[in-house]
Amino acid sequence: MRTEPDRKSSYGRSMTQTQQAQKILVTGATGTVGRQVVAELLARGHTVRALTRDPATADFPAGVEVVRGDLTDPDSLVPALVGVTGVHLITFGGAYFAPLETGPRILELARAAGVRRVTVLHGGEATPLEQAVRADGRVDWTVIMPVEFMGNALEWADGIVTAGEVREPFVSRLSAMVHEGDIGAVAAVALTEEGHGSQEYVITGPELLTVGDKVATIAAARGRDIALVELTEEEAVAQWRAAGHPEDVIGFLLEAYGNTPEVGRTVADTVEKVTGRPARTFGQWAAEHADTFRAG
User: Fold this and answer.
1) DSSP code of residue 141
2) Which pLDDT tens digit goes with each residue over 156-199?
3) Among the four residues 17, 219, 265, 293, which has the most C-beta atoms within 10 Å?
4) CB 60 within 8 A of CB 31
5) HEC states along 156-170?
6) Where is the NmrA-like domain (predicted)?
């Protein structure tokens, strides 16, 4: 069952008001969420060590210590774990992003290195690594469970720029989509502050939006109208196949969009409770990315 803090406590205060700087290891650091965790930790004054299989292409801001490692080979993490107090984990790894079976060994190494806190980015199902973390009683763990990313709207950019339109099925579906930066902010607090052990945080934005709402918001941000073309399921499947999506992904999209689970269309106040500030709106996200939706 999801649990949440029942008071704001010191959540959301700057690091200098509440604690000393800490060193945090971020795995999956080059991913969409990983980069936001890195950015938020830096903004709060902490030291970040970013794990990647290819440091040469990581492209992190100055001040981030980039180290080589692979979650499918836990012993490769030993140097990266030295001196860190917290670790952000993902549940998939390797070249084909298979569910990680290495959770118990990763946790064993983390405990031996003195790690006190672990966050896990939920992978959409009960993965072996997440199960191993939940079963561990010797570190403070927090499971981070975001709903649909606002960044998914970037998939519309080509159609908007070239044809001034968005072509989607299920246009009346509701989503409590979340700004990726807010995912990073919640993870950063859980990794560096007390009071988040054994917690499962569902992270959403502050509003429910239809596809039409999102399109109108992007249109306002870019300063030009966008047509919304509703597709049938058959037309949507054909479009996704033409885009190269495999059949299992198409099946997932049909289920997620055609029968959005309640958790994905219910606003939660987790961001404000944990960070002390409101969750960012889709309007804010659209303003940040307005140029992406403009021609030229």
Assistant:
1) E
2) 999 999 999 999 999 999 999 999 999 999 999 999 999 999 99
3) 293
4) no
5) HHHHHHHHCEEEECC
6) 21-118
